[in-house]
Amino acid sequence: MSLPLSKKYKPMEALPASELPTGTEWQYEPKWDGFRCLAFRDGKRVELMSKSGKPLTRYFPELVRTLSALPAEQFVLDGEIVIPVDGTLSFDHLLMRIHPAASRVQKLSQETPSTFLVFDLLVDEDGRPLVKMPLEERRSTLELFAKRYLKKNQSVRLSPVTEDLSVARKWFRMGVALDGVIAKRRDLPYQTGERAGMQKIKRQRTADCVVGGFRYLEKEPLVGSLLLGLYNDEGNLDHVGFTSSIKDADRPALTKKLEGMIKPPGFTGKAPGGLSRWSTKRSAEWQPLAPKLVVEVQFDHFTGGRFRHGTKFLRWRPEKDPKDCTLKQVERENRSALDLL
After folding, report:
1. What whole-number distance in Å separates Cα of residue 223 and Cα of residue 256?
2. Domain spans of the chain?
3. How confident is the model at residue 177 (pLDDT cuts 50, 70, 90)?
4. Which residues are tagged catalytic?
5. What confidence score (pLDDT) does residue 334 get?
6. Which architecture does CATH list for 205-329?
7. What tens digit of pLDDT does each residue of 277-286 get?
8. N or C terminus of the chain with fewer C-beta within 10 Å?
9. Residue 45 CB coordination number (10 Å)
10. Cβ distance 211 to 295 under 8 Å?
11. Are the CB atoms for 219 and 313 separated by under 8 Å?
């Protein structure tokens, strides 16, 4: 086997779906909240590659050491890199690894070591490509590989799978403990770089937030985004993100309404940041509002005290008391996704 196999294999990707598919041709796996990764081993050489084809090798030296020490001297594994912290998975600690300083990466690798959760085997220890096999056969081969080479290894572990729809639904209801559920066709080969034969089902999560401020559009004096807040345990309003999915037809009237409610400080806890490399002076400026308006938004992830991405505006909640909009809405469940391993 020769590297660069990374030039030959790309991760098979999933199509979004609104519900779990049913039928004997499907199997189900947890959708982990981490970095998708292909791991290539050829003798002493190990290479890690992200879903987008970017190299990850230098950011996870502890994983490279572990993979290099496995008795199998060649393979291609498909899986997810996660970082367990205090009994749960921390995406923020993964983001911290993407750092230019090798010394910083090395320090973090010792303080918060990563785990590689493996769910597919594309090339086995004999250098035999398996991608043309149906998933059912690849999974059986992967389980034999794990039994032979991973055993008690805590850094490289086999991700669970089930054909039982009730179990998959139970995983899905874990919601905030997992990122969702992946459904895969057991009868299909590995379609490298394609979105086929796999579906990802993510649970819709919503939160009621106080509108603590707003920003104007960059080129027009109309509201561009609402700045969202949640009350912390001390009773202060923390800025936790934004929503910009406002209908154009609603912007003029909404702007007039918001301008009549401008009142500092807007946020009494964590406040919005200033300029960044992505923002202009105008887009970074924000207007504080009296904490009277409540909006319901849909979101994917809440980590590090804020929504990881922008949220989707759903509706206004005039009947909701702003003081009831607390961080408890988005706290992670006590049960950890790591309980599945």
Report:
1. 9
2. 5-201, 205-329
3. low
4. 31
5. 45
6. Beta Barrel (2.40)
7. 334 444 458 9
8. C
9. 14
10. yes
11. no
